Amino acid sequence: MSVGLRQKLWSFGLIVVFFVGWQLFCAMSGVSDLVLPRPTEIIATLIARFPILWPHILQTLGTTMAGFVLGVGLGVVLGAVIGVSKVAYDTAYPLLVGFSSIPKVAVVPIFVLWFGSGSVPAILTALSICFFPIVVNIATGLATTEPELEDVLKALGASKMDILWNVGLPRTMPFFFASLKVAVSYAFVGAVLAETVASNRGIGNVMMSASSNFNVPLVFACLFILAILGVALYVIFSLIEARVTGWATRKNDLVAT
Amino acid sequence: MGAAGAQRRPTAIELSATSVTFGRGPTATPALAETNLSIPDGEFLALVGPSGCGKSTILKLVSNLLRPTTGVVIVGGREVAAKALRIGMAFQNPTMLPWLTIERNIMLPLKIVEPFRSEYRQKRTGEFRDKAHALLAQVGLKDFGNKYPWQLSGGMLQRANLCRALIHEPRMLLLDEPFGALDQFTKEELWSILQSLWLQHKPTVLLVTHDLREAGFLASRICVMSARPGRILDDRPVDFPRPRTIPMTFEPDFVALNQRLRELIVNARSSAPEAQEA
Description:
The structure holds 2 protein chains of 2 kinds. Chain A is an all-alpha fold. Chain A has a single domain, classed as MetI-like (MetI-like fold, Orthogonal Bundle), CATH 1.10.3720. Chain A has helices at 2-29, 39-84, 86-101, 104-115, 119-143, 147-154, 160-197, 203-212, 216-244. The longest helix of chain A is centred in the first third of the chain and has 46 residues, at 39-84. Chain A is globular, with a radius of gyration of 22 Å. Mean pLDDT of chain A is 87; it is low at 252-257. Chain B has 2 domains: 3-86 and 171-277, Rossmann fold, CATH 3.40.50.300; 95-170, no CATH class. Chain B contains 10 helices and 10 strands. Chain B has helices at residues 3-6, 55-62, 102-106, 108-112, 120-123, 127-138, 154-166, 184-201, 212-218, 252-271, and strands spanning 11-22, 29-40, 44-48, 70-75, 78-79, 87-90, 172-176, 204-208, 221-225, 232-237. In chain B, the strands form 2 sheets. Chain B has a 6-stranded mixed β-sheet, sandwiched between helices. A 4-stranded antiparallel β-sheet of chain B has the order 2-1-4-5, with helices on one face. The two termini of chain B are 35 Å apart. Mean pLDDT of chain B is 84; it is low at 1-6.
């Protein structure tokens, strides 16, 4: 317990050091606000503009979560199919890797062409960028399930569905949550990316217009917001993970009674 | 409880002209030579023999984890097929599912096997759990039901493993070196527990083991197998009175049986071409 607390203090300390260093660097080097604004100024901007920024934050959060949820759904189904069947694993993997290798910036204009600008391309971009790690992790988790664990059920005459439900999926949960944490930040990147290219709402859009007006502190304020939201989502999923898959991450509390 | 009395009971497990070969063509490895084996209901049969002789292959055939290359395997009066049989099984590794508590692990067969399966939802916190706790108490794990597998030692896990093999009251118990990884004293304690469980319910037991004392202590019949490809070399009843005790395993009759079995296995090893690497 005290180890965990100390770790938290250290990482908090590191954050403080980072921002103090940044502030000192700006003050001493006399670098222009147009190049690198001071953290205090960014925070002041953030607070002053917050009422205007709030709807954009909600917009970005909304598209991110929509894309994320759809991406998780698609990813779980695809991952389960690929993980259960060796044939599907071998056949579908090259295609999947191909899709995931396409830079998503290149895809946004296509989505805009199909669906017009606005929320839909942002959701689709978030989806397309975040489903891949989920597919890979679910598939790996299922494909690497120890045959001995499956034999326990097979010897009882369990069906394939029984085995998937009682062994495959629970065994895959740690993989699944690891990928969720990655996927949720990917979804963020996707949504903001689409907003910067083609939307008139959302944090990404605010950043674009701020930078074309040389309002650099506002650009940085938006980056702060994205970072904070990203960390918040990550923490939420870590907490859920700890509850669901605690069995896989035991460490200090190992007591052989 | 001799072989003569055993003949009159119905047959629980029957292998007729069963053989297993892994792979095909020039790389094919025969694992089990044509084997005939008949096990009457309620018998405790131990299979002993050199490493890699196909003892575990026989278990896998009976539990339908493996299909015979030739011949048939009849279990409980019908050919082994995909359909569920009330079989309890314990391997050398306890293979508890790490995300379930011990009691949930033990209740796993109830979740899969009919008639318990359809009642699992209603009874898992009532009757079924009591049943799991009763078994746990019998093997000396009274208060460990809600611990996770990693919180238990190897010997405790193996006890729990035994409970899982027994909870659905199987008429047939397949044990693949279940005590192989345990220290001598834990082993002996578990032998006695297993013996009393067997005396209570009299299931048919097929035990694969390397430990000749274990075979002599537990079994009512011992089959010795040859080196790979395995076949049955020797088949003998064990008539020591029950319940057997650990001191009995040091008496002359028992030691003589052990020595005889040992000779058979040593001969089987040296007559095999690959015996050196085993």
